[in-house]
């Protein structure tokens, strides 16, 4: 039952797909495709490496507590988590997008900020949004959502949203415009600090192989 190899936490979708070339460089090939299989523990060609499939926002938690030795998580997710117990050796430059403020076309965000109005902002990224508006001295009421933030301004739940954008297609489709970029986002490798010491001989070559691809 006990597994004494290394466990890598990944989320399905873009992070999994963008990680495959990194795994290949480390000589690791998953045996199953998480999009097709319902298995949450996925073996690889290497008996000493397995993958666990988790919700993107749960990756730092699995690694923090050592249930996974390492994982790949977006900067957005890491900021919300706080990063406790995590060593973050590499920006993998995958799953790139940006965190931004968006409003409905026709909402004069600059004027609202200028006159010191309280702005209602819907977001899944409470910490990032709080820090951003506090640093600008903008008064906001934050409304926590878990997804589909674009809907909130359309039905009067909020004046603005803080969300991730890549192509801008979803914003355009919902008559929203980006008014502020908060930060560029990409995914990082996170490693459990105890694992790094205890399983150094297994982990370091994987970290090095990933680093070789990123350069
Ligand atoms: P879910 O979609 O299951 O609610 P999630 O949005 O947290 O969860 P993904 O959509 O798989 O999970 O996103 C994972 C990571 O990929 C995010 O944390 C972010 O860093 C990055 N990401 C999110 N949206 C985009 C995007 N449109 N383009 C590129 N990268 C993105
Ligand atoms: Mg998503």
From TrEMBL:
Pathway: Amino-acid biosynthesis; L-histidine biosynthesis; L-histidine from 5-phospho-alpha-D-ribose 1-diphosphate: step 1/9. Residues 55-210 form the ATP phosphoribosyltransferase catalytic domain. InterPro entries: ATP_PRibTrfase_cat, ATP_PRibTrfase_CS, ATP_PRibTrfase_HisG, ATP_PRibTrfase_HisG_short. GO terms for molecular function: ATP phosphoribosyltransferase activity. Its main location: cytoplasm. It is found in: Cytoplasm. It comes from the Bacteria. It catalyses: 1-(5-phospho-beta-D-ribosyl)-ATP + diphosphate = 5-phospho-alpha-D-ribose 1-diphosphate + ATP. Its EC number is 2.4.2.17. Keywords: Amino-acid biosynthesis, ATP-binding, Cytoplasm, Glycosyltransferase, Histidine biosynthesis, Nucleotide-binding, Transferase. Catalyzes the condensation of ATP and 5-phosphoribose 1-diphosphate to form N'-(5'-phosphoribosyl)-ATP (PR-ATP). Has a crucial role in the pathway because the rate of histidine biosynthesis seems to be controlled primarily by regulation of HisG enzymatic activity. Heteromultimer composed of HisG and HisZ subunits. Lacks the C-terminal regulatory region which is replaced by HisZ. Belongs to the ATP phosphoribosyltransferase family. Short subfamily. This is ATP phosphoribosyltransferase. It comes from Niveibacterium microcysteis.
């Amino acid at each position: 039952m006990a597994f004494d190899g290394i466990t890598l936490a990944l989320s399905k979708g873009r992070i999994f797909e963008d990680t495959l070339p990194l795994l290949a460089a480390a000589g690791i090939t998953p045996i199953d495709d998480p999009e097709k299989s319902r298995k949450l523990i996925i073996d690889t060609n290497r008996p000493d490496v397995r993958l666990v499939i988790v919700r993107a926002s749960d990756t730092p938690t699995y690694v923090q507590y050592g249930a996974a030795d390492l994982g790949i998580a977006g900067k957005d997710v890491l900021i919300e988590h706080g990063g406790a117990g995590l060593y973050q050796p590499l920006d993998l430059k995958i799953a790139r997008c940006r965190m931004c403020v968006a409003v409905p076309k026709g909402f004069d965000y600059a004027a609202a900020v200028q006159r010191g109005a309280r702005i209602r902002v819907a977001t899944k990224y409470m910490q990032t949004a709080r820090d951003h508006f506090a640093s600008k001295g903008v008064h906001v009421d934050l409304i926590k959502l878990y997804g589909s933030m674009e809907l909130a301004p359309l039905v009067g739940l909020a004046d603005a949203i803080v969300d991730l954008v890549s192509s801008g297609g979803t914003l355009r489709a919902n008559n929203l415009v980006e008014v502020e970029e908060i930060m560029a986002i990409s995914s990082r490798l996170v490693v459990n600090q105890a694992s790094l010491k205890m399983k150094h001989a297994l982990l370091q070559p994987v970290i090095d192989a990933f680093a070789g691809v990123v350069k």
